[in-house]
Amino acid sequence: MGIYQKEPDITLTRNYRTKYGVGINLEQEISADLGAFFRTGWNDGNSESFAFTEVDQTVSGGISLKGTS
């Protein structure tokens, strides 16, 4: 005889909380058609947010080329 165990209901512990985070975006025009960017972000990662995905830290960078030349 097996024992049926019900999955816990996480909605019982939900409460409104404050979630802290910070983001930085730097952009630099190198020429009329070329630019560079750097982005970074952080949040506390301890609270559930309403967003679909949870990301505690992020870093990205790259170049932007218009192509008008």
Description:
By secondary structure, this protein is mainly beta. Helix content is 0%, strand content 41%. It contains no helices and three strands. A three-stranded antiparallel β-sheet has the order 1-2-3, with no helix packed on it. Strand 1 and strand 2 form a beta hairpin. It starts with 20 loop residues before the first strand and ends with a strand.
Strand content: 35-45%
What is the molecular shape? elongated
Helix coverage percent = under 10%
Main beta-sheet strand count, sense and barrel state: 3 strands, antiparallel
Q: Termini separation (Å)?
A: 75 Å
What is the count of β-strands? Answer: 3
Largest sheet: spatial strand order: 1-2-3
Residue stretches low in confidence (pLDDT < 50, at least 5 long) are: none
Structural class, by secondary structure, is: mainly beta
Quaternary form: single chain
Q: On the 0-100 scale, what is the average pLDDT?
A: 83
Work out the radius of gyration.
21 Å
H/E element sequence = EEE
- Specify the number of helices: 0
Summarize this structure as a short list of keywords or feature phrases:
3 strands; mainly beta; 0% helix; 69 residues; three-stranded antiparallel beta sheet
Question: What is the structure about, briefly put?
Answer:
With 69 residues, the protein is an all-beta fold. It has strands at residues 21-29, 34-43, 57-65. The model has no long low-confidence stretch (mean pLDDT 83).
